Amino acid sequence: MTTCKTYELRVKSKEQLEGLLFQYKTELAELRRQQTQRPSLPTIRTVRKNIARVLTVMNEHNRAAIKQFYKGKKYLPKDQRSKQTKSMRNQLTRFEAARTTEKERKRIQTFPERNYTIKA
């Protein structure tokens, strides 16, 4: 069994990928049965890696479809949100940081900043 190439898997449809996955899983089961007679079967590793590749591509397709579905919506699923540090996620936005309270506005209006000129 040769390894399947990921770039070849990416162009296949969901049904083709599911068929390949079923084929690889049945092949793996057959190899597991053969392993009882011959303890050393190196092809098991390649089949397991092929299954992992197919599952990875299927997950990529699913994530892309979810991303397209939620594009432009107000809320995103947690796994689709931007991955930053917690402190960066919790920072105030520019709009929130620029806002002032009523008390602050009154204080600024009552006691404006004083500008002094220096005599040369």
CATH fold type of the domain at 6-80? Helix Hairpins
As a percent range, the share of strand residues is under 5%
Total strand count, please? 0
Average pLDDT works out at: 92
Distance between the termini: 89 Å
Specify the structural class.
mainly alpha
Largest sheet features = none
- Show unreliable segments: none
Radius of gyration: 30 Å
Write the layout of secondary structure elements.
Layout: H1 6-10, H2 14-35, H3 43-69, H4 86-89, H5 94-98, H6 102-110
Describe the structure.
This protein has a domain of 75 residues: Helix Hairpins (Orthogonal Bundle). The protein has 6 helices and no strands. The longest helix is centred in the middle third of the chain and has 27 residues. The protein is rod-shaped.
Give a summary of the structure in a few sentences.
The chain has a domain of 75 residues: Helix Hairpins (Orthogonal Bundle), CATH 1.10.287. The protein is 60% helix and 0% strand.
Give structural attributes.
mainly alpha, Helix Hairpins, 6 helices
